[in-house]
Design brief:
This protein is α/β, with parallel strands linked by helices. It contains ten helices and nine strands. The protein has a six-stranded parallel beta sheet with strand order 1-4-3-2-5-6, sandwiched between helices. A three-stranded antiparallel beta sheet has the order 7-8-9. Helix 3 links the parallel strand 3 and strand 4 (89-91). The radius of gyration is 19 Å and the shape is globular. The N and C termini lie far apart (47 Å). Pantoate is lined by residues 28-30, 58, 61, 128, 131-132, 150, 153.
C-alpha cells in the first residue's frame, strides 16, 4: 500500500489507478480510523478495482471551540488499519497544501444543509462540501463511499455531486455499531466508561421510536418527546436536537409518512454524538 502526501503525486497515482482499473473507490476520512471506517474500506476494496483512503482533519469544517486541535490523530495506526482492510493508497495531505495562503473559495449548499447539524454547527457543511469537492476533483474516483452515521452529510454530498454534475457514483453504507448499539465514531474515544454506557441511550431512543412507528404510531411530536425523555434521564447526556424528518429533504414531519429519518444529536460528557435510523412508514 502506498502513502501519498502531495497533491501532484496524488494526481499521478490516481490517474494510473484509473487507467489500470475499471472502478476506483474513494473513502474520505479524517483519520482516527475505527471499525466503521474499516467496513467502508473493506466494502470499497471488495467492490472496486482500487481503493483510495484520504486522511485529512479538515480545519474548514470545525467551528470555534469544536476541537480541531484536539481531534485524535494517529497516522501510523490509521495507515496500518487502511492497509489491513484493503486500501491501495492512503492520501495524507497537509492543511497548507489543501488550503494554501490566500485560499478563499468555498462550496455552499442550500436548504439541505441549513437544518439540524447545519444549524448547530454554522459553516460545517460549507467546510465538508469544499474539501469533498477538492478531493473528488483531484482523485476523480468512479465511486465515493460514505457512512450513514453522518446521514445529513451523506445527503449533502449526494446533492452536491448531482448539482455539480460530478462524474462519480455516490454510495452510502450502513452504520456500524458497538454491541450496545452505540454508533462507531472517532468521538467515542473521549467517552469515559460511564459516559460510554450512557451514550447507548441514543440508539435505544432511536430504536424505541422505530419500534413505535412500526407498530402504527404516526404522531412525530409524541415520539420526539419520548426520545428526549429517555436521553434526558442520563445524567451525562444533553440533547441538542431530536427530529423525525422526510428522509430525502430532511424537512420535519408532524404526521409520519413515506421514508423517514429519525435523527438525534446530543452531548455526552465532552463528546457531541449524532446518530440516525431510517424507517419506511407503510
Ligand atoms: O465524515 C468525515 O470524516 C468528514 O466530514 C469528511 C467527509 C472526510 C470530510 O472532511
Amino acid at each position: 500500500m502506498r502513502v501519498v502526501r502531495t497533491i501532484p503525486e496524488m494526481r499521478v497515482v490516481a490517474e494510473r489507478l484509473r487507467r489500470r482499473h475499471r472502478t476506483v473507490g474513494l473513502v474520505p476520512t479524517m483519520g482516527a480510523l475505527h471499525e466503521g471506517h474499516a467496513s467502508l474500506i473493506r466494502t470499497s476494496a471488495s467492490r472496486y478495482g482500487a481503493t483510495i483512503v484520504t486522511i485529512f482533519v479538515n480545519p474548514l469544517q470545525f467551528g470555534p471551540g469544536e476541537g480541531y486541535r484536539r481531534y485524535p490523530r494517529d497516522l501510523a495506526q490509521d495507515v496500518r488499519r487502511a492497509a489491513a482492510n484493503g486500501a491501495d493508497v492512503v492520501f495524507v495531505p497537509g492543511a497548507p497544501q489543501m488550503y494554501p495562503a490566500g485560499f478563499q473559495t468555498a462550496v455552499e449548499i442550500g436548504e439541505l444543509a441549513a437544518r439540524w447539524e447545519g444549524r448547530s454547527r454554522p459553516g460545517h457543511f460549507r467546510g465538508v462540501a469544499t474539501v469533498v469537492v477538492k478531493l473528488l476533483d483531484l482523485i476523480q474516483p468512479t465511486h465515493a463511499v460514505f457512512g450513514q452515521k453522518d446521514y445529513q452529510q451523506a445527503l449533502v454530498i449526494r446533492r452536491l455531486i448531482q448539482d455539480l454534475n460530478l462524474p462519480v457514483a455516490f454510495q452510502m453504507l450502513p452504520t456500524v455499531r458497538e454491541p450496545g448499539g452505540l454508533a462507531m465514531s472517532s468521538r467515542n474515544r473521549s467517552l469515559s466508561v460511564s459516559e460510554r454506557r450512557q451514550a447507548t441511550v441514543l440508539y435505544r431512543a432511536l430504536d424505541h421510536a422505530r419500534g413505535r412507528i412500526r407498530s402504527g404510531v404516526r404522531h412525530a411530536p409524541s415520539l420526539i418527546a419520548q426520545m428526549r425523555h429517555m436521553i434526558d434521564a442520563q445524567p451525562a447526556a444533553r440533547v441538542d436536537y431530536v427530529a423525525i424528518v422526510d428522509a430525502k429533504t430532511l424537512r420535519p414531519q408532524a404526521r409520519l409518512h413515506g421514508r423517514v429519518a429519525i435523527l438525534v444529536a446530543a452531548c455526552v460528557g465532552r463528546a457531541r454524538l449524532i446518530d440516525n435510523l431510517l424507517v419506511e412508514v407503510s
